[in-house]
Amino acid sequence: MKRSFTVAGALALSLSLVGFAAPAGAQKTETAIFAGGCFWCVESDFDHLGGVLDTTSGYIGGKAQNPTYYDHEGFREAVRVTFDPSKVSYDKLLEVFWHSVDPTDAGGQFCDRGHAYTTAIYATSQAQLKQAKASEAAVKKDLGQVATEVTTAPTFWPAEGYHQDYYKKNPLKYRYYRTGCGRNARVESVWGDKAYMGIKDHMG
């Protein structure tokens, strides 16, 4: 099922992964980046996790500058998650991610095929990379195989505005897409009662 649009998006702006010093007393936040197939769905799933402050759909992993939805060869669809580590841990984000995708599929996710829809965890620090590698080993032990790439994050490029919060702006189209693509059904088939662990009451 190929998603198509009639509205052209503006070129995305580059995001620097280097943080700025926060004033004393400011809320401490961290970022995490996950590629889990359609970024609309990944964004929706993480938005339903307590402690997540913001989600941004975008592109990551390719070589070009300013990728767009219609020109992002070599990139994956991904979501940058901004979270409050005092309310939700990175380990919890990893748990939610793994149990809301099919990590055994090397060719894409659900009805969306090709590299752009393959899964990956992009660590934004060495501590995250260590935690992500440990979680990968646990999932491999649980499922027998893992096709998800775990690596250090390169530049993340935010997607066009019409992709942000798509599930909120177009709830009927979004639900039709998610159901038609078979996302929830496949995740439940792979994970059984562990499907959507941490956000089970949401499930799309």
TrEMBL record:
Signal peptide range in chain numbering: 1-21
GO MF term list: L-methionine:thioredoxin-disulfide S-oxidoreductase activity; peptide-methionine (S)-S-oxide reductase activity
Enzyme Commission number(s) from the entry: 1.8.4.11
Active site, renumbered: 38
SUPFAM superfamilies per UniProt: Peptide methionine sulfoxide reductase
Domain Peptide methionine sulphoxide reductase MsrA intervals: 31-175
Pfam families from the UniProt entry: PMSR
Keyword Signal: yes
Keywords, ordered alphabetically: Oxidoreductase, Signal
Reactions that this protein is recorded to catalyse: [thioredoxin]-disulfide + L-methionine + H2O = L-methionine (S)-S-oxide + [thioredoxin]-dithiol; L-methionyl-[protein] + [thioredoxin]-disulfide + H2O = L-methionyl-(S)-S-oxide-[protein] + [thioredoxin]-dithiol
Function: Has an important function as a repair enzyme for proteins that have been inactivated by oxidation. Catalyzes the reversible oxidation-reduction of methionine sulfoxide in proteins to methionine.
Family: Belongs to the MsrA Met sulfoxide reductase family.
Name of the protein in its database record: Peptide methionine sulfoxide reductase MsrA
Biological source species: Jiella endophytica
Gene behind this protein: msrA
